[in-house]
Amino acid sequence: MYNPAMRIIYLKERDILFLFFISIIIIGTTLLFFPIAWQSDKEYTFVDSLFTAVSAVCVTGLSTVDIVGMTLFGKIVLLILIQVGGLGLITFSSMFLALPRKKLTLANTKIIQNYFTNEKIVDPKYIIKIVLRLTLTIELIGAFFLFFSFKKFDIPDPIFSSIFHSVSAFCNAGFSTIPGGLEIFRNQAFGSVTFMLLIVTGGMGFVVLQDIFDFICKRDVVLLLHTKIMLVSTLILIFSGCLLFYIFEFDNITFEGLTWSEKILPALFQSITTRTAGFNTINQGDMTMPSKAISLGLMLIGGGSGSTAGGIKVTTAFLILGVLVQGLNADKGLTVFKRKISSINLTKAGIFFGKAIIIVFMSILGILIAESFYGSKFTFMEITFESFSAIATVGLSLGITSDLSVISKLIIIFTMFAGRIGLFSLIIPVNEIKIDRIINYPEGEVLIG
Amino acid sequence: MYNPAMRIIYLKERDILFLFFISIIIIGTTLLFFPIAWQSDKEYTFVDSLFTAVSAVCVTGLSTVDIVGMTLFGKIVLLILIQVGGLGLITFSSMFLALPRKKLTLANTKIIQNYFTNEKIVDPKYIIKIVLRLTLTIELIGAFFLFFSFKKFDIPDPIFSSIFHSVSAFCNAGFSTIPGGLEIFRNQAFGSVTFMLLIVTGGMGFVVLQDIFDFICKRDVVLLLHTKIMLVSTLILIFSGCLLFYIFEFDNITFEGLTWSEKILPALFQSITTRTAGFNTINQGDMTMPSKAISLGLMLIGGGSGSTAGGIKVTTAFLILGVLVQGLNADKGLTVFKRKISSINLTKAGIFFGKAIIIVFMSILGILIAESFYGSKFTFMEITFESFSAIATVGLSLGITSDLSVISKLIIIFTMFAGRIGLFSLIIPVNEIKIDRIINYPEGEVLIG
Ligand SMILES: [K+]
Ligand SMILES: [K+]
């Protein structure tokens, strides 16, 4: 039954989301605008502070100024913004996504489904508790391992740095306080792998992590359809990406001085970081054109729903590809792992994808127009790469961020926010769907967004 | 009721479509590979012949060799390929699209709609007859008017040329036998407007033309929802495109030597030709970056369903934008002109869009990879522009077509075919939907593809 009171509650939820993130951004911008946040010789404007705050809260990692030039105070503010931004979204999304009764209906009222679910029903308070505990535990373990790598390379303030980078990696933020970024780890297996594990874990999404945890520790539990799709797709994405980067960077300057076996590490790192961590162990601008184009695809796909990663999400890409492959047989529904995917699920995937493409196109066009007043000194690839990086909150750049005009910077700020909070708000339920527990083919539910 | 016999018939329809176009392409390639088709001093390879034949049958207009170097025999072959390619698809699509009982179901069986239609039911034979008559009539009128323009500019063989260009314009093919293309018409209102009218008429689609004809000539007829959307969207697209090109080319070399009022004509022409005729009165490579990016958007959108135009189609873009604007209220269905758009319709739009984006991305990536073996001498914009032009069968180019490597040419050939025949095959019905004539909100049906 339609319940107007219910509607008001859910609309409030969406308002709370926006209010929450906008408040953090305002506080962050203010704190980062104080001279105390920057070393005295650093030049920065209000837009730079706003850009850095939005980039941190949206866990993007793009920056118009070198954050190495921040004071410890500035770095701590940044760390908190990343943690709150990352955890905030993970908490919101885990709550919305894990509660199977609340669904977004993008289709018309006549096609509301008879819905029979085998998903787990979870208590919101329990979710928040477990998200916090899980995040902090993983980040602490990560920091512990990073400490040894950082000590080895004599990175100043190794305790703070390892905490900062562990949080930045798990939250898929990609900010680094090391001068020159992570390029020192290009050939360092231990440090590289620690980063990769943190990134992949953070980008899987809480639902997947909890499901795997339950699967290992409890009896009579089967993996959710969502988890299966995530695991298979993520493996395929990581290894095909690695193979492609390996091939197209093999003879390139980025892999210079490495043997054929040593080249696997940076190829793997590039494959993982591109969806959507944003750290780099090789200079992105030096990559070959094919590698840059492959990066565009991986960036747009992003990580898991309800994770710290951005992009249209792995499952969304999976569904879209699935429909394209199964094609016209889709009147039988999309069948994956012996489960039927509902039409509403597919429509959600399509809308998510469409919205992302349109936003990124508007972003590219806007920057091209803005830069045309300043002599159009950037290439189409540079601007496209920057816009994809912003909408998917990746943070990789071909090196143009700080040279952009003020209007272009504002467009990137908007794109980051739209890509993170705007796209996410699509999955917040608006209405309760009537659930008739008619026994029928069970439907598997795949998370979108 | 599901009827296996029905399924076989429809699958045959799809096979016929592919067989039909592949046969024409083989015949065309063979004819264009004969030396008799080319002036003796011309160099061309088998791939060039294949490319030209596919480009003609898919009414794209891209070419790896200069068409001006063809003999009259070659030009006549080209003309026939364009006419058969354009008319063939218009006939196939008008038949599939105009018969309201047959619908593609991309959603699962449970959400088959109670379908109440006010669309007109038309006889297939009648459709073929009226399509042929309409096409030939418009092309003859067009040729008649073009003749005067061609006579004025002393274009050789003015009778044949005006027929060729009238067909090429109505079929949205964009091939021109005039050395230097239509740039002589940049500032010529009469010739320009004749071309624009032919392009727009051809790009509207037979269903729209017939509907407008009925609306004017018969009583008690209301415009179809599809027609209303097409008319409104086309007007908005043409005039907003014109305005944008006017602004971004105003001070550019492309509009050199024109007064502010004279600049309106080429801006309008560029806006119309980009969706998906492919003629050019200004050099595309000389356009500003914003104009090139705007062209990408217009190319992808294309023209009307069941027309000679390509792209994802105006109504598809309309639905996608509509869902994005109405957003989360979409559980009430998308409401346009007091009609409700079904979820199946929206899903079709999303799939169409998704397929196009994925094909064009693969095309860009493939060409980047192929060209990386030849020194990557093209920019990302040039390759992106070429790929968008191919998938949407536009035919505009930043001037790289003939310099592409053989593999890249083959990729463009594939992209043209996929964009024209592949995408179109998505709308062919596979299954008959059970129609329950339960009285309910009437649903308007919008054509996709
Ligand atoms: K990031
Ligand atoms: K064309």
Automatic annotation (TrEMBL), chains A, B:
One GO CC annotation: plasma membrane
GO biological process terms held by the UniProt record: metal ion transport
Localisation: Cell membrane
Bilayer topology: Multi-pass membrane protein
Transmembrane spans: 16-38, 50-69, 76-99, 126-147, 159-178, 190-209, 221-248, 308-328, 349-370, 406-428
The keyword Cell membrane is annotated on this UniProt entry: yes
Keywords, sorted A to Z: Cell membrane, Ion transport, Membrane, Transmembrane, Transmembrane helix, Transport
One example GO MF annotation: monoatomic cation transmembrane transporter activity
Taxonomic superkingdom: Bacteria
Chief location: membrane
Descriptive protein name: Trk family potassium uptake protein
Annotated source species: Thiospirochaeta perfilievii
